[in-house]
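Contributing new records

If you add data, match the layout below exactly. Sequence lines come first and carry their own label; structure lines follow with theirs. Keep one chain per record. Anything else will be rejected by the validation script.
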Amino acid sequence: MTSDIIFHYFPDLSETQKEQFVKLEELYSFWNARINVISRKDIESLYLRHVLHSLGIAKVMEFLPGEKVLDVGTGGGFPGIPLAILFPQTQFHLVDSIGKKIKVVDEISLSAGLQNLRATHARAEQINDKFHFIVSRAVTRLGDFYPWVRRKFEKESNNILPNGVLYLKGGDLQEEILEAKLRLVKLYPLTSYFSEDFFETKYVVYFPAQ
């Protein structure tokens, strides 16, 4: 599957953004052969399973210029790198506890010409900045995740949703949400935005800072 799937769902991209998305295939193929950040079978489905999946967050939330977003447990740069391409005026900080994954993020970000992204080899708890939104892709259960980030939100909120977490997760999430004791949780099924079978049980889970 090619980058055309991105252009289908996001038809208003600039030429620069299109070039950056196209370049991701070459960059991830190159770096993944050296430092494995995506499973071998998944690299063939890069645009569907990683890039478009990451951009599901953008169907729920349009980040504003000047907002700051933290991507926790970014791995090879998901969802942070696709979101940084889509929102060039928003500042993204990608963190992961595995140094070689952050090396891949740094190299791909540099080669793609991303000016609005920085990456840090660290655990989320070690980051002292404040952010408007925190994103992540299923790094752990919600009840374990939120304590890592609960004190990292900016107080001033200007977007359509209050500052909070946008978490990509699949499956039956009701028990996990109850266990986490989170308030005002909203589930956005990705099938509302994308028609591919891959998204059938996948959601963006949103909840405000609490």
